[in-house]
């Protein structure tokens, strides 16, 4: 709300769901980065394992989790504020969340 902060005391479960999906996204993205770095290492035991494909799949999984988190947050927030307050808006962190969906999607594309 412009100039005032109000706590979300009605439903805490969606905060937990949003947080869990974002943590899962972070883990998938982290392992995708690690496997992507391993693509430059040439061990004979890893030759049959397509590391770039696995990293791309992990980035798509990360994209899916970010999209779920943002969808849960958007749905509950609009429902909560739409019923109670007339003038409210999403802030910059919300926009960065949706930008993260787009960026994780494009990071999963293999050339």
From TrEMBL:
Transmembrane helix recorded as keyword: yes
InterPro entries: LMIP, PMP-22/EMP/MP20-like, PMP22/EMP/MP20/Claudin, PMP22_EMP_MP20
Compartments (UniProt record): Membrane
Bilayer topology term: Multi-pass membrane protein
Entry annotated with the keyword Nucleus: no
Top-level lineage group: Eukaryota
GO cellular component entries: plasma membrane
TM stretches of this protein: 20-41, 53-78, 90-109
Annotated keywords: Membrane, Transmembrane, Transmembrane helix
Molecular function terms, GO-annotated: structural constituent of eye lens
Family in the record: Belongs to the PMP-22/EMP/MP20 family.
Identification of the protein by name: Lens fiber membrane intrinsic protein
